[in-house]
Queue: 2 jobs
Job 1
Amino acid sequence: MSTAPSSVLETEHREITEAFMSFVRRELVPLSAELPETWGMPPADLRAHVRKRSARLGFYAGDYPEELGGSGMPFTAVVLLHQAAGRSGCPLAPYALAGSDGPSPLLRQGTPEQVERYLKPLVRGEATRCLALTEPNAGSDAFHLTSTATRQPAGDWVLTGRKTFVSNAGHADFAIVVARAAGGNGEDGPTAFVVDMDHPRLRIGQRYDGMSGEELCELVLDDVRVPAEAVVGGEEGIGAALGHGIDSLSRGRLVVAAMCDGIAEYALELGVAYARERRAFGERIGAYQHVQEHLVGSRAEVEAAKLLTLACARLVDGGVEAPENAALAKLTSSETAVRVVDRSLRVHGATGWVRGHPLEFLYRYVRMMTIIEGTSEIQKVIVARAMGLG
Ligand SMILES: Cc1cc2nc3c(=O)[nH]c(=O)nc-3n(C[C@H](O)[C@H](O)[C@H](O)COP(=O)(O)OP(=O)(O)OC[C@H]3O[C@@H](n4cnc5c(N)ncnc54)[C@H](O)[C@@H]3O)c2cc1C
């Protein structure tokens, strides 16, 4: 049994975590061994297989209630699964858990028809989606969207504008597009619409290759006409997208924090194992204080980050979803993961820098964690406001 401080908060859902890890070892590790490139974005058909299989076993979207196709897990259990997936070092494990292409909390505000048609297939892992929020001139400042949705006399809407840096746009079944409603009758404000990706006026524009192999896309809304039923949440959803989005941001940020904790722990384990074996100047390099400083500093930060994430997840299960808690956890865990991966790569010297080594990949991969779900600076803005500053 682990004596690490964070184990105090890990015991409660140990059975779920062990069952998940057994699935990873039994099914995903052998599949990973067949990947053409071990580290990188796995092919879409393999990701779909992993997603559906994990959903059937009850892990994917585990916190969604059973009536929606989930397993009704506490949120803390989901966070523990994300930590375990990262720590496993299995490149396919993260795809067994719902991420930014999976069920969107925004759709929980959907009409019964939207829940049936869009949310449930996502929970079952049978469909994926993308979220089109960011614009060329509105990233962190999502309140200043310029894409518009104009209500037509017949009640349908026409969406116009450009969205950028959209994950999974090339594979998604549908997009959740946030545009500013301008419908007359005082209707105004950011509104979410579901738009099928095969809509003839929804076009993928520029494609961007991410540092670690993921593709982001520009989405061009060229007078995309959608029926009134496309507004997420129906009439009550008009102007409500950012309010609903903000309500769900805390959980998304804690999931990112948990992924970072797991990755950091895996990177640290690699660093420690290497330092115990590698010899220089007649000694194992782990005997040198500069190397110890890298690894002990990382150990302290990883434990602190894990504890913070788990404590915040526990508070969520207890009904406390304070945005500043999630912001603190996401800030701490993402920045910790960047530092820990960097230090373990240093400990590996040239060996960790070579393409194909997990640390070489993680060094590129983990960097996005300080940008997605709000940059580190934006997390600090949230915490500063909660502290009564500015
Ligand atoms: C891997 C990846 C996946 C993504 N997926 C999606 C997706 O699926 N859908 C989607 O809509 N978007 C997505 N994005 C876009 C992402 O949400 C934005 O990049 C992010 O919100 C930051 O916006 P920006 O890039 O325009 O930077 P900007 O907002 O222009 O910020 C530039 C810099 O200024 C800082 N800054 C801005 N405002 C403040 C402030 N008030 N105080 C202090 N500093 C500030 C920022 O922290 C940053 O350092 C993705 C991005 C990445 C990297």
Job 2
Amino acid sequence: IRTSRVSFPGSFTAECARQHTLKILFTMPIDWETKLSASARRRPTNALKELCAPLLHKKGMVLLGGGLPSAQAFPFTKISAEFTDGVKVSLSEGKGLLSALQYNAGGVAPLREWASKLIAAKVKPLCEDWEVTLTAGSSDAIEKMFGLLVDEGDVVFTEDHTYSAALSNIRGYGGVAWGVAADHEGVLPAAFEEEIERAKKQGKTIKALYVVPIGANPSGAVMSPGRCKELYDIAKKHNLIVLEDCAYDWLQYTPDRKSKDVPGLRFGGFLPYDSDSRVIRLDTVSKFIAPGLRTGWLTGPKPFVRHFSKLSNLSTHCGSAISQSMVLSLLQQWGEEGLQAHIEKLQRMYQTRRNIVADAFDQHLKGLADWRVPDAGMFFWLRPKSLEAEKKDSRSLIPILLKHNVLVVPGGIFKAEGSDAPSPWLRLAFSYATDDDLKKGVEKLALVLKESAVASEEKEKASSS
Ligand SMILES: Cc1ncc(COP(=O)(O)O)c(C=O)c1O
């Protein structure tokens, strides 16, 4: 910014001009073309699909173009499903069956519209330049998203421990996953600023912040609106993209373990603060309906969504239209009230399991470990006291736990700096096991941690004598 060539009246100093220019720059929507990876910029569109898809339903058009199989060749007459609450969904001829079985550019449009309405009404993005595209679940979206953004050496900041599939994709595209210290609300703003400066000093290209704002995997952290806003402002100051993976917004719990209340349907994250279209949000039905459906959606700035859809048209075609039609039909029959009731039922079930584990930890693990009781998601995050010393790795406990037939995951798997890096943390999922198994698992964990505490005490004594 060359303020020296401009003459400003009176007390309008060069610093004033600099601040003014920065303000203008930072309230402008970001230039997505400068953020995309080289492969994203290079990739041509699916020309065949672009020509044929818009003409597919044009009246009077003789379709000799696309390689579509004949509807008469589909060996289905009906696809139907029954749900636990009595809702029945059925796709039959004239009722969505043939379009669900056919190639389907962009996925099932009414589901996309349903998701857009949900985002507008409940998440309330601040910017206007956003749209929704369907995905084959968040794993699909994560892989594509990093492919579209990350070039060799680009830095993506994350919590110091984060979702391992995101890390694999960042690294797979040659990026650097750069861990930032975190607390029970996720990434710490001061540490984020420090790490950005450190990366800049090393001459790195800083690209994005990837977070799981509600019920983080693995740490269980829940970002408050204040934390999201603070981190957003830092990302904006340094022109970073924010990638928010919102798989667990649906699974939120009441902190008070005695309460039978549940929070119900509510969403967190960064979109409500996104003044200049730099946030990409991922949602999935995996945790609130079923992962086998492979259905989700991405919300983001239109220029990015255009590139994302282009990639989808060349790969997954936005996922299975059969799954999407089933999900749509279920959501339509539920309506908002039915969805609320379903989410509350789920939250009650998982909240009870969370409380069982929290009570068992209080009973068996006091003095043996430190932990967080999560208010969202599926995971307890705990650090055995025997591993407190710097550089101790929880991986040493895994074979002993396996001998007791208990599986928990070592924190190292989620470590941003690399899965070989030591981490004293353990991740324990409370979502899957039965109530009895949860209690049994914690008892066995306590047994192993006691043995490990005794062993490390003896080691210390031997080394000091
Ligand atoms: C943070 C996070 N994102 C995404 C996923 C995967 O979601 P999907 O089943 O939609 O691919 C998971 C699943 O464990 C997750 O924990």
